[in-house]
Amino acid sequence: MKKVIWFLLIAVNCFGQEDNFHLSKNEFNVELLGSGIAYSLNYERTFAQEEKIEMKGSFGAHFNPIEIKWIGTGKTLGLNAEAKINWLLKRNSVETGVGYSYIHFLDSKSSEPLNLIISRLGYRFYNKRKVKYFGISFTPIFVVGVKSETADFNRYIPYGAIRYGWKF
User: Fold this and answer.
1) What is the pLDDT of residue 18?
2) Domain tally for the chain?
């Protein structure tokens, strides 16, 4: 009889505990280089999460007031969107993704906007509470639909990114 009482006490105690883990589905991050070329401000949303895999979507924007030689001259405004799959490790994660960036030149009437396909392979380092993170990524850029008279124009640009973000 004592064993049954102890079993019931332990079982009731186990079911009475609350789960302290809260899945934060929203994220905000600042990315240097990467999908915004110079920088971008991004919002991410987790749409689905299985045991070790999470699927996310993100979108962001940037405004660049300086000249970037390989894109053209002057100020640019850009928008980006990306689909991601992250492999969750104990605390950190490996991220992969593919996205699209649209870059519009603000002070040049002759320049056509740039359309870029940007892939991502990176790693995220989370703090102990998994609320803040630092990430580093390889983000090669594929330039789409640009006709160039010069032979030195490169349609594939190896690129990288670093980011700092918050989950909420």
Assistant:
1) 46
2) 1
